[in-house]
Amino acid sequence: MEKSMQELLGQTVVVIGGSGGIGLATAQRAAAEGAKLVLTGRNPERLREVAKQLGAPSTAAFDVMDSPALERFFGELPTPVDHVMVTAGRPNYGRLLEMDLAGVRQAFEEHILLVLRVARLAATRMKPSGTLLFMGSTGGRGPGVGLGISSTINAALPTLVAGLAVELAPVRVNLIAPGFVDTGLSASLLGDALEERRKHLRTTLPIRRVVGPGDVASLAVHIMTNTALTGATYDIDGGEQFVAA
Hints:
The protein is of the alpha/beta class. It has a single domain, classed as Rossmann fold (3-Layer(aba) Sandwich). It contains 8 helices and 7 strands; from the N terminus they run βαβαβαβαβαβαααβ. The protein has a 7-stranded parallel sheet, with helices on both faces. Strand 2, helix 2 and strand 3 (58-61) form a beta-alpha-beta unit. Helix 1 crosses helix 8 (213-225), helix 3 (67-75) runs parallel beside helix 4 (101-122) and helix 4 (101-122) packs parallel to helix 5. It is globular. The relative contact order is 0.14.
């Protein structure tokens, strides 16, 4: 049978954090596959610009960590949606014995409790054939100075996602775990060290290039369209975790 030209034609894809980086790349890829987009982001102007470029008919500007705003967003979705992807959140680094407890709580709020909160809110708004897709990381999986919170979160997320996949079935729940991805966020974190990091990865990664947001977007759309995938974690780091840092 001939494959459909547009694999998401007639489907609605919600991208939380869809105005930049991986979220934007996924929105672009989904739009190319025929999806109707619902985009969120914190910056209203940036969100309007992206929505205009992609022809997204629906947007909402809010901070995903604002629980009432998040609840209101899902409550106001006009029709059941097919796929929800969450790309919000920043990496959290610091020595375990030195991080203040408020910062530790915030890290768990942003990465663990947000997943649970979105899953609960999305459960009643999605079609049975839909996909919930979250973001983790291959970075910090092992112990290291300054990586304690990051490694704890990255160890917990696959188990949480697998549990949600069982409870929310037949809605599918999956986790994407990138390594370094060349995005604006990476640039802001690395500053002047960004180009050196790129050069290092080009020479050490098995794929001999740097992973970009489009690579992650391709994986995200594949997970949305492959209805046999649920409860799993998909690494996408160009082999970074298998070579010396």
